[in-house]
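Hello,

I think I submitted the pantoate job twice by accident. Can you confirm which output corresponds to this input? Input:
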Amino acid sequence: MKVFSKIDELREELLKNRQNNASIGLVPTMGALHDGHASLLRAACAENDYVVVSLFVNPTQFAPTEDLAAYPRTFEADCRLAEEIGAKAMFAPTPEEMYPEGDSTWVEVTGHLTAILCGKSRPTHFRGVTTVVAKLLNIVGPCKAYFGQKDGQQAQVVRRMVRDLFIPAEIRIMPIIRENDGLAMSSRNAYLSEDDRAAALVLSRSLNEAEELIKNKGLRDREEILSRITAIISDTPQAQLDYAEIYSFPDLEEIDHLEGEIFIALAVRFGGARLIDNLVVSI
Ligand code: PAF
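Support: Only one job matched these inputs. Its output is below.
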């Protein structure tokens, strides 16, 4: 696997591969790779001839009060894992390479899709994500780019941007990968103390309870399901609820009566860690 930090050098390498008709896949990451990222990489390697994994802790998607400085950085281990799975290139630019002096363009999906859930709690987050993902898609020009359903709203926001800007890449959304006990894999799980790690199981437990209420008990009332979820979370002293919401899937529109595919989403803080999780239920 070749490691690139410069856009021009990566593009030169990709041009050679494109001339040999190689299909290019992109897996954008912020590093601290775990089994969730590994599943994106495996899918990308199975579906493309040449896979680029990008590793960039993108400053513009963090608010000044958030965890940019503390975000886990495990570059050597990330390179080993990506190479082992079959990535051909690692793109690890500096912030100056991605945002050179004078950079003044944002790419922003506006409206309901970015105003709800994480967009409400982190108002500048998605414009940072879409700006950097647009840059990465322009730099790499992949046929397919891979995102995890764990960041379910992000995946839909990226899809909307790609659709609206006619970016010629297919956005592939891969299932959530969980630890054996149900905790969704996330680089931010590294922030959890032992006690909070145990408490964080309340995320998957309350989602499973919601699914049980819908599928086996026939509950269809949004408010009632949400109040059952929030009751479970408030019974966990370490957990501080940011949001629990239900929307339609995949458009994330408001619904009262649950039918079709629905998206149940949670964000909960445990000490310094803010974790998100979600479940798509087909009714
Ligand atoms: O999901 C992430 O790790 C990031 O938001 C992404 C898509 C790599 C953009 O920085």
